[in-house]
Amino acid sequence: MIVYYYTNIIKFSILYLIFNIMNYRLTQEVIQLLEEFDKDNEKSYYTTDINGFQQWISDKAAATSSNKEEPYWEGKESGRSPESAISTLLVHLNRYAKNYSKSAISDSGFVSQEDFIYLINLKAFGQMTKMELIKRNIHDKPVGMLIITRLLKNGWIEQRESDTDRRSKLINITEKGKEALDQQMTKIRKATDIVAGNLTHNEKMELIRILNKLDRFHYPIFSKNIDSKDLIKTVYEEYTFKN
C-alpha cells in the first residue's frame, strides 16, 4: 500500500513538472508573439486588443502557409496571365512612388526624384565614376548625364579626374549637396513610408526577398547594354525561366 502511495506521488510530481514546463514554454511563445505583434503594429494597422491580435495571427499564418490560394488579379477570369498582372502592378507602384517623391521635393531645388536619389547614392557609397552612378540607378547614359549635369550646375556634386583612368571622371557629393539633401530628408523618408503602405513587417520582408530576386535576374541583363531591337529576343531565348 505504501509503495502504491509513493508511486502515485511520483507520477503526480512528474505530470506536474511536465505541465509546468509546457506551460512555461507556452507562456514564452505567447510573449514572443506579443512582442512581434507590437513591432509589426507600430503604425496601428491592427486594433490593440484581442481582435487585432487574432487578425495579425491569421495574416501571419496566411503569409507563411505553403498552401496559399491564388490571389485575384484584374482580368484573371478572362485569361490574363499573372506575368501581365505583375508587370502592370509594378508600373502602377512606380507611378505612385514618383507622385509621393514629387510632393517631397515640391518646395526644393530638386527637379525630379532622380536628383536626390543620385545624391543619396553618392552620400552612401562615396565617390564613383559617372557611369557607375548612372548604372547604379538603372539609367541610360544620355538620361544619367543630364541629371549629373544638373547636379554639377547646382554645386551639389563635384568631379575630378581619376588617378587610374584619365578618361574617367570621379564625382562626389559636396557639402552643399549634403545640405540640400538633409533639408528634404524628413519628407523623403515620409514618402518612402507611404509607398510601403499598410504592409506588415513580415510582408515587407517577403516583398524585399521577392524584389531582390527579380533585381538579381534583371540587373545582369541591363548591364550587357543589349540593343533595344534585340533585347526581348535575346532575353527570352537565353535568360527566361532560369532561377
UniProtKB/TrEMBL annotation:
Record flagged with keyword Glycosyltransferase: no
Entry protein name: DNA-binding transcriptional regulator, MarR family
SMART domains with a match to the protein in the record: HTH_MARR
Domain HTH marR-type: start-end pairs: 83-216
Keywords, comma-separated and alphabetical: DNA-binding, Transcription, Transcription regulation
The keyword DNA-binding belongs to this UniProt entry's keyword annotation: yes
Gene Ontology molecular function, alphabetical: DNA binding
